[in-house]
Amino acid sequence: MIFGLFRRDPRRTTIAALYERVATASRAPGLYAGLGIPDTLEGRFEALSLHMILGLRALRELPPPADEVAKDLTDAFFRDMDASLREMGVGDTVVPKRMKKIAESFYGRAQAYDAPLNDADEGALALALARNAYGTEAPATPLARYALAADQGFKSVDLSTLLEKGPVFPDPGAFASGGSR
């Protein structure tokens, strides 16, 4: 009976692997060097948020149990954010307030990116990404092209492939030379 406490939960292991793949994609050097996302704490949050949003959009389009996977993936993201705050020395009394701000930021970005991604509206997405990722009004056209390509690429992936191989994001370097920024 007690040994059951030490067994790995296969579902949790699968979600952890999926989250790790998304997080790894968000740390691709081309996002920072080629597409201009600032290599700062805020920039890394923006990159991770964008990749999470793209992954969650892909799951949203798939049949059940993709909705449960999306919920578990979102939970993994917020657990990671909580752990990161604590590693940075944020006190226990402040963590909930910071987590609330992180959640508001994340869901605000998801909402801002959703319509342009649905409509494949490069211009609107470039402006939304510029405001969030760069803190400017100059369109983030190469980053928007990258996000649109990733979003489009997910349309042909089924849940089992997504869980086994993870989301496959395009090479950011392929988008670095096009457009402004």
From TrEMBL:
Domain of life: Bacteria
Domain Ubiquinol-cytochrome c chaperone: 35-169
InterPro entries, per database record: Ubiq_cyt_c_chap, Ubiqinol_cyt_c_chaperone_CPB3, Ubq_cyt-c_CBP3-rel
Family named by the database record: Belongs to the UPF0174 family.
Record-given protein name: Ubiquinol-cytochrome C chaperone
